[in-house]
Predict the structure.
Amino acid sequence: MKNKSHFVMSPLIMAGLILACLMRSVLAEEAEYTKQRQRLVDLIEVDVRLTGQFLGKDVLDEHVLQALRKVPRHEFVPENLRPYAYQNKPLPIGHGQTISQPYIVAIMTDLLGLTQNSRVLEIGTGSAYQAAVLAEVAGNVYSIEIIEALGQKAAGLLKSLGYEAVQTRVGDGYYGWEAAAPFDAIIVTASASHIPPPLIKQLKPGGRMIIPVGSRFTVQHLILVSKDQDNKVTTRQILPVSFVPLTGQH
């Protein structure tokens, strides 16, 4: 009787094969997310053209569009909602808060007129998606979150994804970040009943602020605030929106 030989795969080879399979899976997943981000940008561009009369333009800055193509929105939503990460709609992130609709993120970022030298203050870090988009377009981003659990989570996520240009802290954003002021641009991601005076004060001459104004139970409007070189402040109503309210003791 002939002896039968058996091939025994070494643990090292087995580990290598498993690693290769995992790498292929990760690369395939990332390729799919890249396609989904591009489809999302295509949808946003259509919405921008449809609302161009309100925005005063029908094409967004390419730097903003490129940021949306790059930032992995699926990393900023709860894991069970990742299949919906690249739909053009807001999603819950816990604590009664939401991650904004990508179209809204896009137009708010664009209306600030940012450059790589811009110093930006964000009120309402939330999941940190908006902060990440800002960091792709501007030089320095400061972001404040009033809910401690969200603020700490956002700070850790931004660091893990390499967004070193974003500085975060927990606090009441109504009062801004005086120690880091003045700012070229300020973005508020929660609705206020009025434009907070401390934020106007911390805006540089020539700067812009974008903020939703109105209450939860009335029509809110996205307002573009501009401060000229003589510190004269003007406002322009952009379009109706729906945001969670700005909270704090004020």
In short: The chain has a mean pLDDT of 91.
